[in-house]
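@channel sequence for tomorrow's demo:
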Amino acid sequence: MSKCETDGVANKPAKEVHLLHQMIHERLLDLGFTKNCKGYFVEGEISKQRIRDLHSMHRQEVLDQNKSFIATCRPELFKNFANGWEVDPARINPELIEVKADTTESRLFRLACLLWSVPVSQGFGRRLRFLVRDRQNGCLIGLLALGDPVFNLSARDAWVGWTHNDRRQRLVHVMDAYVLGALPPYSMLIGGKLVAAMIGSDEIKAAYERKYLGLRAVISGNENRARLVLLTTTSALGRSSIYNRLAVPDGPRFMRIGITKGFGHFHLSGEIFESLRAYLEAQGHPYASGHRFGMGPNWKIRVARAALEKLGINGNTILKHGIEREVYAIPLAMNWREVLLGKHRNVRSCTMPLAEISQYCLNRWVIPRAERDERYKRFERCKIIECLQNGGPGPTW
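structure tokens (generated this afternoon):
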């Protein structure tokens, strides 16, 4: 081997490190981050539109990955989205359709998720997905999905009063709403509050118990006897106008319990993340080849942090993006805290029928909005197709 070839082999790791540094730096600047001696940050007011813009590159990557899927969706699938003139607010009649794998409903759920301004994760571990359909016209009102919660969420843990051991033993009583929202034209009628409130329904509790109670966990082999007593969710775009003051008398209540610390990995998505993972794999690091299953929803951030540290970069200077999200808790039992602290075994549920929740939300928010603002009537479902084809920072309708 010649000296030039030897030098080339010796310098390859250094070149790779330099390239990854440059890729990360350029990605963050392209997204609108500013760099100083302490790291990267978002300068100025972080508005909802600013957050959409920051996620726009990730959203475009997701749309590009799903381009062939979108192209294969038949017109019949798009007809599940309503035109505004097809909606009579006084006759809205929601029903929950549980989504099963490899069905028309799962394709519709996947397609509708692509409309979210902040790309939707796939969920981890236990997972329940639902379409919210309007019986009056057969069209989609919105989407709802529950999955396993993240293990470390300081706002939740402090609010519950958990020790580390409490959380390890009883986190199984909690699930997280990782998809929750309405689609146009229902979103233009504050339909997001209607969809969100549904997670406190008898029907959701029954679906969880039907799917998971009494079954053995794949990893531990233990029988699941955990009743669902608490749900959590986080706002997507900073302060939430949907979850704020959302409460149904004698029913579900959204309680703001804190904010996230502004850490994450969305700005390291796509090619950047895959490059970081491949770099870890070349180093023989176990996180690189670890599959998401069994490693929890923190897998990506662990991969990113480990790779950044290997590159000589303080992970906090990159992963702390500064976009704080509100954290909400929705109790499903009157004695939820006692159950989560191990003081009670019997659960006193406080869910209520979906029909009662829906009627309250329609009378409280949806119908009054329709009377004040009739712009929803002008919405055309062809805008859904345009949005999926054109990408961008996320629809505001």
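heads up for whoever presents: The CA atoms of residues 25 and 35 lie 9 Å apart.
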